[in-house]
Amino acid sequence: MGEPLLRRIVRIAADTNPDHLIVVLGSSAYDCVPVIKNCGVDIVVNPFWETGLAGSIRLGVERAEEEGADSILLLLADQPWLNADVIQQFFDHLKGEPDMIIAARYEGILGAPMMFGSGWFSKLKTLEGDQGARNIVAKEGNRVQVIEWSDGAVDVDTPEDLAGLMRGEQSMPHASNGDREGEIRD
């Protein structure tokens, strides 16, 4: 059996040599911790994962603030084609500006990964529910720096998605997730 997707994403992120790597875990934290515990990451468990993605973002931002971070890169562990080159593009665009936002674009959608300067930390901590950071990106759309990444459209949310990926299907349809052209997606 291959490397678990979570471990692969964490390993790739670590290979880009970030100042600090924080992984926020939710519903399956008990199962996930052993998979990444030896990866040299700061693991934060979100006990309120049922309230949505916003709680995990909030905990990650709070931990990043404790570390004195000047930016935060939000990665999702369900994007199997994420690689170090994509992550490096975010760091290459990073200019130390506290008000910067960088987002990936695929299939006309702005989504994860997303990078926010420290000027957005307080706003990120006010997010609620399962909408993630997409509302901020949508409101600030004309100020967002874009990284084109067509493979970002592929994500693995269900066992069926994983089975399709393993059969060699290159993309998972997002229509079932309510995504449409031009929407912002986390």
Describe this structure in words.
The chain has one domain (5-185): Spore Coat Polysaccharide Biosynthesis Protein SpsA, Chain A. By secondary structure, the protein is of the alpha/beta class. 33% of the residues lie in helices and 18% in strands.
Q: How would you describe this structure in keywords?
A:
about 190 residues, alpha/beta, disordered C terminus, 7 helices, globular, Spore Coat Polysaccharide Biosynthesis Protein SpsA, Chain A, about 35% helix
Lay out the secondary structure.
Layout: H1 5-15, E1 22-25, H2 29-36, E2 42-45, H3 53-66, E3 71-74, H4 84-93, E4 101-106, E5 109-117, H5 121-124, H6 134-139, E6 145-148, H7 159-166, E7 184-185
Parallel strand pairs: 1-2, 4-6, 5-7
Antiparallel strand pairs: 3-5, 4-5
Most strands sheet: 5 strands, mixed
The unreliable regions are 171-186
Which homologous superfamily in CATH is the superfamily? Spore Coat Polysaccharide Biosynthesis Protein SpsA, Chain A
Shape: globular
Query: Do you know the CATH topology?
Result: Spore Coat Polysaccharide Biosynthesis Protein SpsA, Chain A
Q: How many helices?
A: 7
Helix content: 25-40%
Number of domains: 1
Which secondary-structure class do the elements indicate?
Answer: alpha/beta
Strand content: 15-25%
Radius of gyration over all CA atoms, rounded: 16 Å
> Could you state the order of secondary-structure elements as H and E?
HEHEHEHEEHHEHE
Number of strands: 7
* First-residue to last-residue Cα separation: 28 Å
At the first level of CATH, the class is Alpha Beta
Named CATH architecture: Alpha-Beta Complex
State mean pLDDT (0 to 100 scale): 85
